[in-house]
Structure formats: structure tokens, C-alpha cells
Amino acid sequence: LQVMINLLRCEDRIKLAVRLESAWTDRVRYMVVVYTSGRQDTEENILLGVDFSSKE
Fold it and tell me: Lesser CB count within 10 Å: N end or C end of the chain?
């Protein structure tokens, strides 16, 4: 989780992180919903796919 947090900007927040099945045994895959407060106080969300080597 800390590695995913380090990928984000300081104003971004992880709302949800779900570990997904991976077709590769040496990979760990996550779906992450990231929230940030945008311009003019709008809420913005983005859905990211994040893959990690199991060695990380």
C-alpha cells in the first residue's frame, strides 16, 4: 500500500484499492480509485490499474 501512496501527488487520496487476479504468477495487480479536490472545489476521481512485480 505504501508503494501505491508514493506514486500519488501529495493532494491525492486513495479511496479504494482492490487486489485483482493476475494471469502472471510473478505479478500483483490492483485496481485503485484515487480522489482529489479539483479546481473550483470540484471532486475528481480516477480509476487506475497498478501492476507490481512480486519481487517489489
Answer: C
Cα angle for residues 1, 3, 42 (degrees, 5° grid): 75
β-partners of residue 31 are 18, 49
Reported as a single tens digit per residue, the pLDDT across 24-55 is: 888 999 999 999 987 788 889 999 999 988 76
CATH tag for 2-53 (out of 3.40.50, 1.20.1070, 2.20.25, 2.60.120): 2.20.25
CA proximity to 48, closest of 35, 39, 56: 35
